[in-house]
What does this fold into?
Amino acid sequence: MATVGVSCSAADLSPLLGGASTNATAAAAAYICSQFEAVNNRLTDTTFAVDSTYLLFSAYLVFAMQLGFAMLCAGSVRAKNTMNIMLTNVLDAAAGGLFYYLFGFAFAFGAPSNGFIGRHFFGLRDFPTSSVDYSYFLYQWAFAIAAAGITSGSIAERTQFVAYLIYSSFLTGFVYPVVSHWFWSADGWASPSRADKLLFHSGVIDFAGSGVVHMVGGIAGFWGALIEGPRIGRFGQKGRSVALRGHSASLVVLGTFMLWFGWYGFNPGSFLQILKPYGQPGGSYYGQWSAIGRTAVTTTLAGSTAALTTLFGKRLVAGHWNVTDVCNGLLGGFAAITSGCSVVDPWAAIVCGFVASGVLIGLNRLAERLKYDDPLEAAQLHGGCGAWGILFTALFAREKYVNEVYPGRPGRPYGLFMGGGGRLLGAHLIQILVIFGWVSATMGPLFFVLKKLKLLRISAEDEMAGMDLTRHGGFAYVYHDEDGDESTGGPQVFGMRKVEPNLRTPNSNDGNSPQGVLV
It folds into this structure.
């Protein structure tokens, strides 16, 4: 963290108090210097307190994204699986908290260590230190459970509860921390903060985790969904795609807005501190606080552009305005800008969002052709758009911003399209390959073993009936009215039914033609 430097020397101050070196002058000089030191200590303490408060507030925002994930997942699945998917989101946070405390944080940031994995701070032993505090642990834990939450959406509506426990613990306790060590720890082999031997003289600029968080969660979800296979009824006998729509667009929109709100802790919060001037100290209006504001703006523009592009793109393809598609497009833009949000101009963020929308739409069409079923489009959204975000950063990173965010190395490579050469692009291509390889080599075999042990997928009967009824004691939306059912004398039971529009044009001569079908 930055400190405030105010120095005072009695020997230097004495001549200014009267010239002659008398005892009284020396005492006065010593007294004034002691007051300066007290002020300096207070300013230093205040700086630490402000930076720590900023990081804690950012951690709270990122953790609030779990509510967004829960609402988004609940709205995107059918009503009969609502309680199941909500419980898995709670599980991601709870199991992730324990395993990240025991192992994950040490593997990620346990310095000093080697370039592959950390080896200190297991169970937060010998913690905190002069460089990291508990607020930093909390912030990094919130990131770890975000990766696990991404994966849960890919395997929704057909996965055994024990499989969630196993994969979530493994992902947050080992797989994700190793990746974050590579790119975010000062000892990581591809970190831009290494003291020497930077990858391509640059390191990887994945500021808030398009690769570290989103690609990891998306690729893990990809293998889970691929090994499990599609949901029953997702593809017809002739291979035709059948939409198994989520039961509540309202929850999808609510979850999307919660995620949008939390992203302002995810991206701007990744600066970790706010009281850091970039120019000469002494009242400059420009500093890290300015970069934080710019990062919030680039995040907003990328998401907004992706949402609008998806809106009109899907309108041309499908012929209607779909709020769920727009929400996914918005999140795809956010996932893409997360890597370069701090080092690109606002106009470049618009480019990022525009392309991210195309990536998402294209990958969704490819998934349908390959009969790949991801209820929340998590692999396409987080994996595909995250990979684009990594490439985008290597193309559009601006030299000035790169040197401000990653100081101390003049001449560091920056974006190819901004005149910085291709070294950063080379480093980022390696990042994409190693993340895909690492997650595939760890999570793929895990899901495969779970399948062989019959611990991965539920039975066809349970899947058809819905996991809320067969695994969690009843449907999420069934309740008992206190007034009771007059016909039976017992409690009156209410349930929700989904009404799909009938796309057939009713016969004008038949006034009784149905306008909807109950499912």
